[in-house]
Specification:
By secondary structure, the protein is mainly beta. It has one helix and 16 strands. It has an eight-stranded antiparallel β-sheet with strand order 9-10-11-12-13-14-15-16, with no helix packed on it. Strands 3, 4, 5, 6, 7 and 8 form a six-stranded antiparallel β-sheet that branches. It has a two-stranded parallel ribbon with strand order 1-2.
Length: 253
């Protein structure tokens, strides 16, 4: 399940995402991908395994409970959001529906969103136990680059999001990992995974892109950066967060 972004005239930043993750053990339903608008410069994403789809009626019943008026909503500021068909996750504490949302008629500063609904089984269908309409916010032009659900970073399901954009010739992107805990979604880490100033300078342009590797579930992972700045960032879990233990972090935006 991967999305690819492109924007004419911008230099590509490649980032291979979650290449070592394997199958997504928590996911029991996946969204049907259509054409993806470009919220940020070209991002090259490594292939992500596609989970087996659940019975269609399970995902349909979950979405009917979470979005009784259809896959639409609005931001706190009143902008309309269109949600893509979701991912139905079987978490240890119950079913969770995860939907990527895109802001309609978005401005450049508008980010994409991820709506999360904690569900309970109700007869042959579902009912909403708790709703988090903006559980994750990332990207620009009303959309994010990539969204997936993984079991490789924690004992609980984790939402992976990648999003970015270009501002005055500087192109940057970030990775966000959000854990689905029994009491609600909680951010594990957010780090910059791509940078380029090639749209802002003529000489001495710089660009770097990161790839997650060496994941030890629930304990640690590494981000390997290549480009004009090549380095490694090592993250370890301490309590409810992943923190930088050694190496560098990408900066620039």
């Amino acid at each position: 399940m991967a999305k690819r972004l492109s924007r004419g005239g911008l230099t590509a930043i490649g980032i291979g995402v979650l290449a070592a993750m394997g199958a997504f053990g928590w996911v029991v339903g996946s969204n049907v991908q259509g054409p993806t608008p470009a919220p940020s410069p070209s991002v090259s994403v490594a292939p992500v395994p596609t989970p087996s789809a659940p019975p269609v009626d399970a995902l349909a019943a979950a979405q009917a409970a979470a979005f009784p008026e259809g896959l639409t909503g609005q931001t706190d500021g009143g902008a309309r959001i269109d949600y893509r068909p979701g991912i139905l996750v079987e978490a240890p504490f119950g079913p969770v529906l995860v939907n990527e949302g895109r802001v309609r008629d978005a401005a450049h500063v508008d980010a994409g969103t991820v709506a999360v609904h904690y569900l309970r089984r109700d007869g042959s269908g579902f009912a909403v136990a708790r709703a988090f309409p903006e559980a994750v916010v990332s990207g620009s032009n009303g959309a994010m680059a990539e969204m997936a659900v993984s079991d490789k970073f924690s004992d609980l399901p984790v939402i992976y999001v990648q999003g970015g954009g270009t501002w005055q010739g500087y192109t940057c992107s970030w990775t966000t990992l959000t854990e689905l805990r029994p009491d609600g979604p909680a951010e594990l880490v957010r780090f910059m995974d791509g940078y380029s100033n090639e749209g802002a300078v003529e000489d001495g342009a710089e660009s770097s892109a990161g790839k997650i590797a060496d994941i030890v579930p629930g304990r640690a992972f590494t981000v390997r950066f290549t480009g004009t700045r090549a380095f490694t960032a090592n993250y370890v879990r301490r309590g409810g967060k992943y923190v930088l233990e050694s190496g560098e972090e990408l900066t620039g935006c």
